[in-house]
Design goal:
The protein is an alpha+beta fold. The protein has one domain. The protein contains 6 helices and 13 strands. Strands 3, 4, 8, 10, 11 and 12 form a 6-stranded antiparallel β-sheet that branches. It has a 3-stranded antiparallel β-sheet with strand order 1-2-9, with no helix packed on it. Strands 5-6 form a two-stranded antiparallel sheet. Helix 2 crosses helix 3. The protein is elongated.
Length: 226
């Protein structure tokens, strides 16, 4: 009781937790076909189990993608109809392939995350996305210590990283940084920005989702690429 009251127990647990566990670091590597290469590095002195690894789009923002191949579209007063219809999904969000994988102590593993859009003629141009992952020690004693420091509130096994995916490259950004995917796309491409802002359109996609699917409502950019 005296140790807990003076805070010595919390300090001791935090020191032991850092010494024995360190952390598991996630890092984007490079595009891998239509998907993306990632590396998980276990800096801990014990093997770590990847409980979950998720790719989650920022649904509070709009996003931009581009058509990479020649496709046929149908124009109407409601907009443009593209091959496959106006709805698709995000394969990366459904990725569960690394869950349960054990990364040995002081080692790393590389893996591929699926594409951010299911259409093979599309590529994400500008999007804010989160990488959320959780790990636990494969050692039962260290696992008990992890649970203890989590209850105390001095550490967490959950990690969250934020990225701007621009031109198929993932750039890490801070949680407090004010970054807008649409603004970034227009800022880095003056032709693209002028074609929409100067016409009074919000550049460039008038869509929002409440799930991981994409609904293309009046996809104006298609008219410039078809």
């Amino acid at each position: 009781m005296w140790l807990a009251a003076t805070g010595i127990l919390a300090v001791a647990c935090q020191f032991a937790f850092k010494y024995f566990t360190e952390e598991v670091e996630a890092r984007y590597l490079e595009p891998a076909g239509r998907g993306y290469g990632f590396r998980l590095t276990n800096k801990c002195s014990t093997a770590q189990v990847i409980e979950s690894f998720r790719v989650v789009p920022d649904l509070e923002q709009e996003f931009v993608f581009k058509i990479t191949d020649n496709v046929y579209g149908e124009f109407s007063q409601d907009g443009v109809s593209i091959p496959g219809g106006s709805t698709t999904y995000m394969p990366a969000y459904e990725f569960r392939g690394i869950d349960g994988y054990v990364v040995p102590a002081n080692s790393s593993t590389e893996f591929r995350v699926p594409p951010l859009v299911a259409r093979d003629y599309m590529q994400m141009e500008s999007l804010i996305v989160f990488i959320e992952y959780q790990t636990r020690s494969a050692n039962s004693v260290i696992r008990w210590l992890e649970k203890l420091v989590t209850v105390i509130g001095i550490a967490s096994s959950k990690k969250r990283l934020r990225f701007l995916v621009a031109e198929n490259y993932w750039t890490p950004i801070g949680d407090e940084a004010s970054v807008d995917a649409i603004d970034a796309a227009c800022r880095y491409n003056d032709v693209f920005g002028n074609s929409f802002y100067m016409q009074g359109h919000y550049c460039p996609v008038n869509n929002r989702t409440n799930s991981v699917g994409y609904h293309f409502h009046g996809y104006q950019l298609a008219s410039e690429h078809l």
